[in-house]
Amino acid sequence: MEATMKGLCALRKLRQELQDDAGVEFPQAIHTEMLVLYDVCRCLDFNLFQCKAVLGEMGWRYINTYLGMHVTTIERIVDQ
What we know:
The chain is an all-alpha fold. It is built from 3 helices and no strands.
């Protein structure tokens, strides 16, 4: 699926509104919403730079840390 610049800007605006609502608790306060935004980016085949633009730098780091943490945890459980 090919996304337009208009769509990317709309998603970024949505994230900014959510971030403003979350305040100092961003991104933890909107954990689920950040995961949904990440999934939308993936479904739209956004590249790395587009995903970072939508999620913001802090949101991008948060999602990657969260996803990486769970993959590592699952690998440990499987190895046992």
